[in-house]
UniProtKB/TrEMBL annotation:
<dbReference type="GO" id="GO:0005829">
    <property type="term" value="C:cytosol"/>
</dbReference>
<feature type="binding site">
    <location>
        <position position="155"/>
    </location>
    <ligand>
        <name>Mn(2+)</name>
    </ligand>
</feature>
<keyword id="KW-0378">Hydrolase</keyword>
<keyword id="KW-0464">Manganese</keyword>
<keyword id="KW-0835">Urea cycle</keyword>
<feature type="binding site">
    <location>
        <position position="153"/>
    </location>
    <ligand>
        <name>Mn(2+)</name>
    </ligand>
</feature>
<feature type="binding site">
    <location>
        <position position="261"/>
    </location>
    <ligand>
        <name>Mn(2+)</name>
    </ligand>
</feature>
<dbReference type="GO" id="GO:0010121">
    <property type="term" value="P:L-arginine catabolic process to proline via ornithine"/>
</dbReference>
<dbReference type="GO" id="GO:0030145">
    <property type="term" value="F:manganese ion binding"/>
</dbReference>
<feature type="binding site">
    <location>
        <position position="263"/>
    </location>
    <ligand>
        <name>Mn(2+)</name>
    </ligand>
</feature>
<comment type="similarity">
    <text>Belongs to the arginase family.</text>
</comment>
<dbReference type="Pfam" id="PF00491">
    <property type="entry name" value="Arginase"/>
</dbReference>
<dbReference type="GO" id="GO:0005634">
    <property type="term" value="C:nucleus"/>
</dbReference>
<dbReference type="InterPro" id="IPR014033">
    <property type="entry name" value="Arginase"/>
</dbReference>
<protein>
    <recommendedName>
        <fullName>Arginase</fullName>
        <ecNumber>3.5.3.1</ecNumber>
    </recommendedName>
</protein>
<keyword id="KW-0056">Arginine metabolism</keyword>
<feature type="binding site">
    <location>
        <position position="130"/>
    </location>
    <ligand>
        <name>Mn(2+)</name>
    </ligand>
</feature>
């Protein structure tokens, strides 16, 4: 088994070789897999009760995401915002709220993600609430096969419709996607298209600090790899990331789906979100996670969810939340905090 460190060195070598090629042969193929972003806006909020989160995609774009990605050498194609079906009479099914709207929206999103993956991009799904991970991960897997999922969040979002105390589907997406939980999922309207596509052993959580009893039971039952904030405190984020990537690539290196909930970051930095929880990741820890995942060369899809301007008390709250979301996405596409210069840079002579 190749350790992540040697994998990284191999990758750096590959990059050097590619750079040489770049001048002579293949100008368009350098870093293609991680340097081409297909942006999908998903202004959807019915997975939870608070309005405002549907404004996430436009705010993140307005903060300059596309230009900043291009400035760092990334090809960007913006597929715009999706339109979702209006569902009337979306009565609760048991405790589950807005099942029809959530099911229908995620079906569309899954189809969109499949199409964008087939065009060769790393998909960037701008939410919207975290129920959208159902369609995003489903579509990603339908296009590329088995995945590793890295879920960065204050919450595990793994309630089943029957363990959930709120009935909000943004707290349940992983339960619909995991093979191991299928016998525990009741029939819901507009959910019949979902085929479970993730194995518990291919899932890693980072940043958990608000886990419901049923969720905690499920995580232990399935033996899911979890780096809660206690592990982050104990090990530090660099070690957490080494262990995450070693764990996920122990056998085969699968494409990585990074599902990033902005509430993973501490609310002192990202307050404009629906369910903030104290004691989160620092800005630097949050960015480090994206840098490390980018360096694996395996990042194939990213979700950035739960940015909600109506939950910020001040303009600064909103600005800090949105610009952090942008920086996390830049980290996913190779931004270097150490700085950067072009290979033909020359110092000016006096
Ligand atoms: C580094 O700088 C060069 C030249 O400005 C640019 O083309 C390249 O994309 C940059 N790389 C990153 C990772 O920012
Ligand atoms: C979702 O449910 C609504 C209402 O029952 C129905 O009109 C619609 O066609 C369904 N959509 C999908 C994609 O299943
Ligand atoms: Mn979440």
């Amino acid at each position: 088994r190749v350790s992540m460190r040697s994998a990284r060195i191999l990758r750096q070598l590959a990059v050097t070789v590619c750079k040489r090629h770049h001048h002579h042969h293949h100008p368009h193929h350098r870093y293609h897999h991680q340097r081409s972003a297909g942006i999908i806006g998903a202004p959807f909020s019915k997975g939870q009760p608070r309005g405002g989160v549907e404004r996430g995609p436009d705010l993140i774009r307005a903060a300059g995401l596309l230009n900043k990605l291009r400035e760092q050498g990334c090809t960007v194609k913006d597929y715009g915002n999706m339109a979702f079906e209006e569902v009337v009479d979306d009565e609760p099914v048991g405790r589950v709220k807005c099942a029809r709207a959530v099911g229908s929206a995620n079906k569309r999103l899954s189809d969109a993600v499949q199409a964008v993956k087939r065009e060769g991009h790393t998909t960037v799904m701008l939410g919207g609430d975290h129920s959208l991970a159902i369609g995003s991960i489903h579509g990603h897997s339908a296009a590329v096969g088995e995945l590793s999922v890295v879920w960065v969040d204050a919450h595990a979002d793994i309630n089943t419709p029957l363990t959930s105390s709120t009935g909000n589907i943004h707290g349940q997406p992983m339960s619909y996607l995991l093979h191991e939980l299928q016998s525990k999922i009741p029939v819901l309207p507009n959910f019949s298209w979902i085929k479970p596509c993730v194995s518990a052993k291919d899932l890693v959580y980072i940043g958990l600090r608000d886990v419901d009893p049923g969720e905690h039971y499920i995580l232990k039952l399935l033996g899911v790899k979890v780096f809660s904030m206690s592990e982050v405190d104990h090990l530090g984020v660099p070690r957490v990331m080494e262990e995450t990537c070693d764990y996920l690539s122990a056998k085969v290196k699968k494409p990585i789906h990074l599902s990033y909930d902005i509430d993973a970051i501490d609310p002192s930095v990202t307050p404009a979100t629906g369910t903030p929880v104290v004691g989160g990741l620092t800005y630097r820890e949050g960015v480090y996670i994206t840098e490390h995942i980018c360096q694996t060369g395996l990042l194939s899809a990213v979700d950035m969810v739960e940015v909600n301007p109506l939950r910020g008390r001040t303009e600064d709250d909103i600005q800090s939340t949105v610009s952090t979301a942008v920086d996390l996405l830049l980290g996913c596409f190779g931004r270097l905090r150490e700085g950067n210069h072009s290979s033909d840079y020359r110092l000016p002579e006096p």
